[in-house]
Amino acid sequence: MEKNVLQWLEMTAGRLPEKIAYSEASASLSFGQVLIRSKRVGSAILSLTLSEGPLAVMMGRDISTITADLGVVYSGRAYAPIDATLPDDRIKKILDRLQPAGIISDKEHLERVNSLRGLYCSAVDGKEEACPILCLEDLLLKETDEEALLSVRKSMLETDPLYIIFTSGSSGNPKGVATSHHSLMCYISAYRDVMGIAEEDRLGCQAPLDYIAAVRDIYLPLLTGAQTYLIPKEFFMQPTELFQCMREEGITAVGWSASALSVLSALGCWKDDNTGLPGLRKICFSGSVLPGKVLSEWQRNLPEAKFVNQYGPTEATASCTYYILDHVVREDEVIPIGIPYDNYRILLLGEDGKEAPAGEEGEICVSGPILALGYWNDPERTQEVFIQNPLKGPYGERIYRTGDIGRLREDGLLEFHGRRDRQIKYMGHRVELDEIETASYEMDGVDSCAALFQEDKEVLWLFFAGNGETKDVILYLRKKLPGFMVPRKVKKLEELPKLPNGKTDMTRLKEEMGRSRRSK
Amino acid sequence: MRDSILEILREQRPDVDFENETQLVSGGVLESFDIVSIVAELDDEFDISIGPKDLVASNFDSVEAITEMVERLTEEE
């Protein structure tokens, strides 16, 4: 059995060296090229004297980034993809937590990464040499050192970390989810089986490459010989262009955020005399609850396609459960999240720490080899949610508490019933409302505030009181948070409405959202 | 008309220099959910219906381009 994801690359490159693995608007890489480049990058990293630890990869959304990621894997280290366009403050928090041994970038992004030098130097104890910037173009000049690569491979375990992906944390500090080769390989194999992904498939990638959803588009080709095309981000605002691009590229399968389908529907992608997507046969959507209204529109327009609703967090390697649609849904239908993928087990825990009685709500907990190794460099938060299964006293079984509420139907399908806390899913991203508030409180001029999510409109709101101006609050948050976390509706109030116990009256704020002229 | 369009754009994204930006979509300045919201507000404000065919970068890359598109759609209504 394979224990390292690079074995997939080596097998497929051996079998199909000329076949295209990854492509984008103006470039493509065959499996053979991906293999050679990744090995060169890996060899170059091994020839350097670096401290222990992962490597950050700060590049653009293009296929060379994937060879940088895989090159890091060849060097035996884990990679942490970081979006170079994030605000400085955010990148600093990530680097503080990550403590990388170096940063890989490319010529295009070197200037930006260099401008962050001060940030990451302070993140790694002021020792500039402790975290050098490596330029991909230079690394690619290095000849492959098969002996060094083999020696690294022999020392590796399948439980070694493969990547560290950062997500929103309620305290204002992003959490780095570290996932092993084995977990990733379990998930990708299970997903391949459910979706029926094969060599002839063309996958249309929607996700940013630093985001968990991208692992499917990066690793499915290595396992199956399929090809991934990186669809330009701006096409998701231009439905006619998007569909034309997908037809030209012959896209057959997608794993997109539910929000991408919603946005395209809202932009009228199926209206007018659209020639549609006759080649698209496999559609997995995940990340948030997809309204029946949106799904039924896609189903009616793609009657031949298989639709799969996937549920699951980054901490369980992108997923837990799936549900294959077997009928065109009604507009008001609530779509179940289904049954666990192979090698995933679900448990619903009641508030008393016991298994929730049949048919009742409980917290969705996951176990299996797909559980993340934990939060990088953060044992405290790891211990809070990766716990011993209270039902398995006689032996050690780790479970991950998702914080999501579920209910098991009589037919054995799981339903999603929201969150225990204030985490929401916005445009496929996890957002902790607490984190938005924490960032707002850091600004002078915000005395009190509350972040809310208007679900029906998918709009993030921030209400605040203080002597700051609305515009300044937004500009401040832009410097602190990723763009998708900055509320698009910010409203200044004389004071926030309070409940008798002194807490913010969320119900009155919700009424306030409904009253807004623009959101009618 | 240009001023009310500017107001809508600025309310959505106060951090963007709409007077000078000419690659709002093709340069990745606006996110897809910004566009959804801006389209809904333009439809509302000017009583037009922006369809998928109008949603191309050349119609949304600058405040001038958006104004031209809205003018065209207003005449068609």
**Which class of secondary structure composition applies to the elements of chain B?**
mainly alpha
The CATH architecture of the largest domain in chain A would be 3-Layer(aba) Sandwich
Gross geometry of chain B: globular
In CATH, the architecture of chain B is: Orthogonal Bundle
Counting structural domains of chain A, the number is: 3
Structural class based on helices, strands and sheet pairing of chain A? alpha/beta
CATH superfamily of the largest domain in chain A: ANL, N-terminal domain
Helical fraction of chain A equals 25-40%
Q: Into which percentage range does the β-strand content of chain B fall?
A: under 5%
Search tags:
heterodimer, A: 520 residues, alpha/beta, Rossmann fold, GMP Synthetase, Chain A, domain 3, 3 domains, 5-stranded antiparallel sheet, 17 helices, 26 strands, B: 77 residues, mainly alpha, Non-ribosomal Peptide Synthetase Peptidyl Carrier Protein, Chain A, 0% strand, globular
Architecture overview:
The complex is a heterodimer of chains A (520) and B (77). The radius of gyration of chain A is 23 Å and the shape is globular. Chain A is 33% helix and 24% strand. By secondary structure, chain A is α/β, with parallel strands linked by helices. Chain A folds into 3 domains: 5-230, ANL, N-terminal domain (Rossmann fold, 3-Layer(aba) Sandwich), CATH 3.40.50; 233-380 and 391-421, ANL, N-terminal domain (Rossmann fold); 425-518, ANL, C-terminal domain (GMP Synthetase, Chain A, domain 3, 2-Layer Sandwich), CATH 3.30.300. Chain B is 57% helix and 0% strand. Chain B has 4 helices and no strands. The mean pLDDT of chain B is 91. The chains are: A alpha/beta (520), B mainly alpha (77). The interface between A and B is medium-sized, with 30 and 26 residues.
